[in-house]
């Protein structure tokens, strides 16, 4: 994703095995789709690394020095492209807002349940 006109993904590393079955889709991606992806994204440095006996994956390095790894085990070439676009479009940091569940108790409150009437009464006393 571009932040103030600057793409945040600096480098995309594609690692795969040259003979392993789980890397079949990634090999097809590297041979057929990756040249078009590189041409469409000139701001991005793309490297391919052959790691024999290892499962395939994408590693994104961002301007803020953080990295993200996406596992591509048994992924189709279209799925590899989708994950590459996902890494390109993300900012490289964790989500800032964490949605948490409210704490619920089995025992009722000693003070009683909350209501608008209680809040209005408190405001009137102030």
Automatic annotation (TrEMBL):
Gene Ontology process terms (BP): mitochondrial translation
SMART domains: L51_S25_CI-B8 (SM00916)
Main location, first listed in the record: mitochondrion
Domain of life: Eukaryota
Any one cellular-component term (Gene Ontology): mitochondrial large ribosomal subunit
Keywords annotated in UniProt: Mitochondrion, Ribonucleoprotein, Ribosomal protein
GO molecular function, one term: structural constituent of ribosome
Protein name listed in UniProt: Large ribosomal subunit protein mL43
Species in which this protein is naturally found: Chlorella ohadii
